[in-house]
Specification:
By secondary structure, the chain is of the alpha+beta class. The protein has a single domain, classed as 4-Layer Sandwich (Metallo-beta-lactamase, Chain A). It is built from four helices and five strands. The chain has helices at residues 74-86, 103-126, 131-137, 149-168; strands spanning 22-26, 29-35, 45-49, 54-62, 91-96. The chain has a five-stranded mixed β-sheet with strand order 1-2-3-4-5, covered by helices on one side. Strand 4 (54-62), helix 1 and strand 5 form a beta-alpha-beta unit.
Length: 171
C-alpha cells in the first residue's frame, strides 16, 4: 500500500503529548507551539521558531488573497490572528501562498477582511436585511481585486451571515 512501509518498519509511540501552548528547545533552537483553534479548523496550531522569527501559521493565513471561510468560526479566527500578530514574526509561512517577508501585513489583511465581512453581515442580520440584499449593497471594492475574491467572497459572506444569525440567537 505505502512503498515506504515494509516488514522493517517500526511504530514508535509518542513520548510527549501536546496539551495547549508548548515551548521547547531542540538543538539550541527554541520553538513556541501555540494552539489557536478552533478557528479556521478545529485543531489550528501555529509554530514560531524564536531565533529566526519564523512563524508557521497554517491555514489561518491566506497570503495576499481572500481567505476561504467555509464554516469556520470567524470570531475565534480573529482571536487566533491577534495571538499570531502578538508574536511579531519576521517571516511567515502561511497555509496558502508563498513565504511572507511582510507577515504583519499579511496577518492584518486576513484579520481586516474577516472583520469587514463580520461587520457587514452582522449589521444585515441585526437590521433583518435578507442576505441577497445585504450582499448586493455591501461595498466590496477594497477586496474585489484580490485573488480568489470571485470564487470565495460570496460563499464567505453567506456563511458569515448564517454564523451571525446563530450568534444573534446566542447559539
Amino acid at each position: 500500500m505505502f512503498p515506504w512501509v515494509d516488514e522493517h518498519t517500526k511504530l514508535t509511540p509518542a513520548d510527549t503529548w501536546l496539551d495547549g501552548d508548548t515551548d521547547f528547545e531542540m538543538g539550541g533552537i527554541h520553538f513556541a507551539l501555540r494552539y489557536v483553534g478552533p478557528a479556521h479548523s478545529d485543531e489550528d496550531m501555529a509554530m514560531l521558531v524564536r531565533e529566526d522569527g519564523v512563524l508557521y501559521a497554517g491555514d489561518l493565513v491566506f497570503k495576499g488573497r481572500v481567505p476561504f471561510i467555509g464554516d469556520a468560526d470567524s470570531k475565534a479566527w480573529l482571536a487566533a490572528l491577534d495571538k499570531l500578530i502578538a508574536l511579531k514574526p519576521r517571516v511567515m509561512v502561511p497555509g496558502h501562498g508563498g513565504v511572507s517577508n511582510t507577515p504583519l501585513a499579511d496577518l492584518t489583511l486576513t484579520r481586516d477582511y474577516l472583520n469587514y465581512v463580520r461587520a457587514a453581515m452582522g449589521k444585515a442580520v441585526n437590521d433583518l436585511v435578507p442576505f441577497e440584499e445585504a450582499y448586493a449593497h455591501t461595498d466590496w471594492s477594497k477586496y474585489a481585486k484580490l485573488p480568489a475574491f470571485e470564487q470565495a467572497n460570496r460563499p464567505n459572506a453567506y456563511n458569515t451571515y448564517l454564523l451571525m444569525e446563530k450568534e444573534s440567537l446566542g447559539k
